[in-house]
Amino acid sequence: MRLVLLGAPGSGKGTQAARLKEALGVPHISTGDLLRAAVAAGTPLGQQAKAVMERGELVSDDIVLGMLEERLAQGDVGKGFILDGYPRNLAQANALEALLERIQQPVDLAVQLDVGTELLIQRLAGRAKEEGRADDNPESVRNRLRVYTDQTAPVIDFYRQRGKLVCVYGVGSMDEVSQRVLEAIRNHAATC
Ligand code: AP5
Predict the structure, then answer these.
(1) Which entry of 50, 88, 123, 180 is annotated as an active-site residue?
(2) Looking at ligand 1, which atom is closest to the CA of residue 7?
(3) pTM of the prediction?
(4) Ligand 1: distance of its center to the CA of 11 in Å?
(5) What is the pLDDT of residues 17-71, one digit of tens each?
(6) Domains of the chain as residue ranges with CATH
(7) Mean pLDDT of 157-186
(8) Residue 10 burial (CB count, 10 A)
């Protein structure tokens, strides 16, 4: 199963991907996690990405695609993968489609997690207190939400047009949302 998880910052992509990984037996690939690891390791790529991420803007398409290509070349993706945080704009969606066609592993389904803005802000403020992630401060969160609306939301239509989109209501306990996601994947029915 090759899945793309879509949704605004704080919608629960990372949380649900970690659970789906267990349920589906495929790796969770988060471009945000890959970038944060590069920042923590102080690699040249991480040094380039750090300030951009802290501002809540998108790291350049070329950097992220290169990183993703490297990750998809690893041996554990034979049975599929869950992509979290990619694609983030239409250029990335087209690049991913071309890349996956080349390796004959097209996306099966994109799952859009729907959560209202107020709750997104609440969740990210909660995480800021608990974990202190560098881009969870109010100004970066505002930027991330704006970038999502301007650049990432059009990706929803990209998958809708290909008949590969399901939408899942992302409000409720983590378990409730997981159940909805699994059901939507099983039935490929929660079209939106
Ligand atoms: P990324 O790491 O992808 O961050 P994001 O999209 O902003 O998403 P978050 O991790 O904030 O939210 P999430 O939807 O994963 O929710 P989560 O499960 O964590 O990207 C960070 C940055 O990296 C970008 O801004 C950009 O700079 C760069 N980047 C990454 N990918 C890129 C790309 N492709 N191109 C260019 N740049 C890229 O949950 C959030 C919080 O809510 C947690 O505290 C969680 O515990 C809580 N929560 C989750 N679900 C529930 C629930 N059901 N009930 C209560 N609380 C919940």
Answers:
(1) 88
(2) 14
(3) 0.96
(4) 7
(5) 999 999 999 999 999 999 999 999 999 999 999 999 999 999 999 999 999 999 9
(6) 2-29+75-187 (3.40.50.300)
(7) 96
(8) 26
For residue 192, is pLDDT > 90?
A: no
146 flagged as catalytic: no
Share of the chain above pLDDT 90, in %: 96
- Catalytic residue of the set 2, 21, 127, 164: 127
**Distance from Cα 63 to the centre of ligand 1, integer Å:** 19
Residue 12: count of CB within 10 angstroms of its CB: 23
Spot the catalytic one: 2, 21, 55, 133. 133
User: Is residue 115 within 8 Å of residue 8, measured between CB atoms?
Assistant: yes
**Whole-number Å distance between alpha carbons of 135 and 128:** 8
Catalytic annotation on 55?
no
Looking at residue 54, its pLDDT comes to: 97
Q: CA nearest 148: which of 107, 117, 108?
A: 117
Rounded distance from Cα 67 to ligand 1 centre (Å): 18
Alpha helices (H) along 27-116: 31-41, 44-55, 61-72, 90-102
